[in-house]
Design goal:
103 residues, alpha/beta, Transcription Regulator spoIIAA, five-stranded mixed sheet, 3 helices, 36% helix
């Protein structure tokens, strides 16, 4: 499956994702998100209701973004994540650096 996403900046950067964040999609996603952050440095909120899958490379892309924004005291919020997707964050203990809210 592919990944579709929209990035909108208001009080924070809001990213609506749909599909799979994996080895085939993570580089472009990471680069687009960092480009937007560099133009508008704000907290990032990922609306993950339609995120079907994330693998280690997708997680790595989010960690790269996190490493870029943490020095500015910004955070990444992940909202409405499915249980099976959240399991990846829990197993890797990345739920300790991202603010996650399950469906």
């Amino acid at each position: 499956m592919q990944l579709n996403y929209d990035i909108v900046t208001k009080d924070e950067i809001i990213v609506r994702v749909q599909g799979d964040l994996d080895i085939n999609t993570c580089d472009e996603f990471r680069d687009d998100l960092l480009e937007e952050y560099n133009k508008n440095p704000k907290d990032i909120r990922i609306e993950a209701t339609d995120l079907s899958f994330i693998d280690s490379t997708g997680l790595g892309a989010l960690i790269k973004v996190y490493n870029e924004i943490k020095d500015n005291n910004h955070k990444i919020y992940i909202d409405n994540i499915k249980k099976h997707v959240n399991k990846v964050f829990t197993i890797t203990e990345m739920d300790k650096i991202f603010v996650i809210k399950e469906i």
